[in-house]
Amino acid sequence: MSKNKIMALVTAAFMFASNTIVFAKPIQNKNIKAENTYVESSLKKDSKVENYVTILEAKDKAKGEEVNLKGTITSRIGNSFFLQDDTAGIYVYMGAKNLDELKLGNVVTFTGILDEYYGVKQIKNINNLKVVSENNNLPKAKVLKAEEVSNDKFLGDLITVENITITTVGKGKKGYNVIATDGTYNVNLRIDKWVNPYIDSKEFKVGTKINVTAPLTKHTDFNGETKYQLMISSLNNIKLSNNQDAQKVEVKKIPEIQGRAHRSPLENQNVSGVEGIVTTVSSKDKYQRGFYIQSEVPDNDPATSEGIFVETKDTKKVKVGDKVKVDGTVKELIHDYSPKTSTGLTETAIKATDFEVESSDNKLPEPININLEGNLLKNIDNDGLKDFEPEDDAIDYYESLEGMLVNVKDPLIVGADERYGELAVLASNGKNSKDSLTPNNGIKASEGDFNPEIITIDDVIIPISNKGGFIDKNMKVKVGDKLDGDVKGIMSYGFGKYKVLNSEKLPNIIPGNTKREVTTIEEKKDKLTIASYNIENFNNSDKNKVNGIARDIIENLKCPDIIGLVEVQDNSGDLDDGTTDASENFKSLIKAIKDQSKVEYDFVEIAPNNNEDGGKPGGNIRQGYLYRIHRVCLSNNKKGDAVTPVKVSANDNSRPFNENGLSINPGRIDPMNEAFKHSRKPLVCEFMFNGEKVVVIANHLGSKRGDQYLFGSIQPPQMKSEVSRIKQAKVINDFIKEIKEVNPKSNIVVLGDMNDFEFSDTIKTLEGNEMTDMINTLPVNERFTYVHNGNSQVLDHILVSNNLKDQAKFDIVNINSQFTKGYGRLSDHDPILVQLDLEANKNQDNNQNNEQNNEQSKEGWKSIDGHWYYLNSDGTFKTGWEFLNGDWYYFSNTGVMRTNWFNDGFNWYYLREGAMKNGWQFIDNNWYYLNSDGTLKTGWVYSCNKWYFLNSNGAMEKGWQSINGRWYYLGDNGVMATGWNFVSGSWYYLSRNGDMLINGIIDGWTIQGNGIASLL
């Protein structure tokens, strides 16, 4: 750093070291040379300064210009002073020289340089200073109203503000601020640390009405906020107002301050001598710093609280059991991330200007047992906060206890959030909520009842969490656990809910019986299993999570055929570097599954445009699919992109869409629709399973951000975010309608994180008349995939088209939502899955059609002597190939429907239960592939981006196979291998065509005649 830069910083440090215009004290270190920053060593009374300009003219000059000034000293603070003439006033910086001759009322002349700091004009580098006369009257101050003070026009001028009342007095030996108000507008008084003699803050009393005369300046803090200030240099600047008697502050009791309402009747008023016993001290939380006091003798009105929060940084001066008297201003504090926009309630408090301890070791008041019964168990509020009814509305009941010592008896844990050190509990082991309890003793949220009896215990006083996790790494909590003893604490409010701030260490946790579940759905060769799993901002940087999610899929979900994954980030995770591709994340999960189970998946997804789909900036979360390659494959078609909408179009009666299925596969539904702006777009994919097509739509609808708090200032709360989700649901349902118009029997599954409840209008819109939400097939108390603030609730859904609902089995696998990380929690959502019997569904459709045909005419299916026939309208039987009800059938010359394997004289077909199959089929412990026309495939087949080999009987081969004189390795699942492969203890190299290399050298390895590789 250059010498000039160093000197500039030194100068700036002297000039602006306090939180206003700074007045430097004399330099003590003689090694520091302050160049051109202070007056010469003595007054030059014989110096002549001519060509004066007025102060107003000086202010109009450019920064750095030299000016000659003459004026009266109106205030001195430290070494520097304010100067005023008939036109304006200005601050004059004298640097380190202490000149006793610079006194109020002296008229001086000098030469200086115009400077500016944060918009305030001042004079520095003073030379040729001369005292012209002494003890002159000060210029007449301009009398302003409080609302007129914030005006650059008056900066540096001596001004007077009358009849303002002190509301806040700061403290500190390095200067402090005093705030006074006229009832509407505040005026800031600044007492700088260089004021001599220094003015102790005890000289200012809250509630005192004053008149103030002092120079005006302004200060801009490090946050860029500017405040206008009157610079107090002496108590002579302040006079008591003639209206002082009217400002006498009446001593109030805590219940009078709290009142019978959510806001104090004395809000923004000054109170003095408020007495109470200190019940707890909050010294560690940045939102609630201070202490709580409670009346020694209650007023016997259950609607008015006896406790209150005292906001102060001086928490070391008090301890629990002290009896104190508090002076200050009544405030309604907002504890929230965004106080200016919060719709939460407030916490009534006294913003202390002073307090004194009268006695210590006093007995604390007895805590009140929290006990909600009757209407309080269902009513948060039933009158829009019109009436204060603690006996009827839970929101009023909790408010009547605000600030008081309370007790939670026999707490049952129904939720935990270790990020914030919160436990959600029910008192008395949940006995008053038994009808709403889940099988694991959580509590189910239902329409119209979000369980106001849930009590949040927060660690504001005694922290248990830090940096997103429990401080005690051995601590773990799950729904259904209990606390081994009552919890005592203070009833408080913050972040949208009433909370008990425990004032004693939490009792030990008694573990309950809740276990991480394993699905009851078993893998079936002829049944398709589809899962939905929100894996919460998944990326491959956390290997423990990658392996854990893989383990969930294998052990808890039993390897579903298709998995709709939600919240998969791009390859760079949270890093906002423009990356959108997520292939590495999908591949890492697929590898982890294979390493642990040998089950092989492939994946499909569409990358979003950068930062257009919501979620963490740079994360680019999206939906995607894993699918088991030997059981399921994609219908052939090209993959879509972020902005191209998938289309539905009819082609012929044998296929529901165009000849290749959907127009693109996978594709995004109407991605440019305004409903999906800054939100995830639905991802639709058409899969083939045992020759049956299934259209799956994975979703992550808009979040619930923007919804108002359940215990907020607006009752009933408005769920504003639902509007966008309803619009999104309608777009998806319209797409489903298009498919159903083309083929009413299409198999459709809609899954994902819908961010809404099973009884919401969002889900009703999504269902329409075409779909069924499988959540509703479970008992009500088992319907939950997420726990929020103690409420077990549904956010994740699987809907199936109505033609599938009777052949579908559904399960929720609760492995995350009820647990903290210590129990293996990997996401905030639980996975869900459905198993579909597509064959039974088709047979059911055929039977229904047959019954209709039998009722209307003789035409249709007939069962005779254990064989099936199809009767024409003229009474004859169908023979040969016939396309009936969406499937091909073959009838013999006598009309008998053929089943199982069948050769028509040219090709083999598989007619399971009569209907011709195509695609992969597992028959008698072998895999076969049937072309789209039903004919049996032999030889090489390319399916789902993999090569397989089928022998002359059509059965899929595995392992080492000699084909046309060359060796190939087809693996345990029949997939042709390429590249380096380690098989049975040896390395082999297979070309990109799959044939084994022999008698050669590659990558520094010698390949022998048997294909085994060895190092040179």
From TrEMBL:
InterPro entries in alphabetical order: BOBF_sf, Cell_wall/Cho-bd_repeat, Endo/exonu/phosph_ase_sf, Endo/exonuclease/phosphatase
Domain of life: Bacteria
Leader sequence segment: 1-24
Keywords, alphabetical: Repeat, Signal
Domain Endonuclease/exonuclease/phosphatase: 531-829
Renumbered ranges of Cell wall-binding repeats: 858-877, 878-897, 917-936, 937-956, 957-976, 977-996
Any one Pfam family match given in the protein's UniProt record, by short name: Choline_bind_1
UniProt GO MF annotations: catalytic activity
Gene3D superfamilies to which the protein is assigned, alphabetical: Cholin Binding (2.10.270.10), Endonuclease/exonuclease/phosphatase (3.60.10.10)
Record-annotated membrane-spanning stretches: none
Listed name of the protein: Predicted extracellular nuclease
Organism: Clostridium fallax
